[in-house]
Amino acid sequence: QVQLVESGGGLVQPGGSLTLSCAASGFSLNYYAIGWFRQVPGKEREGVACISSSDGSTLYGDPVKGRFTISRDNAKNTAYLQMSNLRPEDTAVYYCGTVFNSARSYFAKCGPHEVGSWGQGTQVTVSS
């Protein structure tokens, strides 16, 4: 069974840090570009960060550039999102997702419309 499971969310104060994990099972993450996306109620899901399966090239959404870092550990079949200098506006449910077709090694725009499989999401709340 193909599955993506996010973990690491929680409550953090503004300026704090969190690291999210996305563990894949039932398939090898090696062959898939993977990304992190977030959504707040009443808004569309948006791309946060994406990483290719070929050369590790990355794309970041403008709001998180310089603060978030996406990485992958193919040996552990896991992707990560390191988040620092968190702001209240980063509060959202964070989802990981793989590109819709393993023949593509990258996300073109790190957009949710490019995702083929989603995890269930993990809540991140930034509040004092």
What's the shape? globular
Question: How much helix is in the residues?
Answer: under 10%
The helix count comes to 0
Strand content: over 45%
Order of helices and strands: EEEEEEEEEEE
Which structural class do the helices and strands define? Answer: mainly beta
Low-confidence stretches: none
Straight-line distance between termini? 40 Å
Biggest beta sheet attributes = 7 strands, mixed
Rg for CA atoms: 13 Å
Mean pLDDT: 96
Per DSSP E runs of 2 or more residues, the count of β-strands stands at 11
Relevant terms:
single chain; 128 residues; mainly beta; seven-stranded mixed sheet; four-stranded antiparallel sheet; 11 strands; 0% helix; globular
Describe this structure in words.
This protein has 128 residues and is mainly β. Helix content is 0%, strand content 47%. It is built from no helices and 11 strands. The strands form 2 sheets. Strands 2, 4, 5, 6, 9, 10 and 11 form a 7-stranded mixed sheet that branches. It is globular and about 45 Å long. It starts with a strand and ends with a strand. The mean pLDDT is 96.
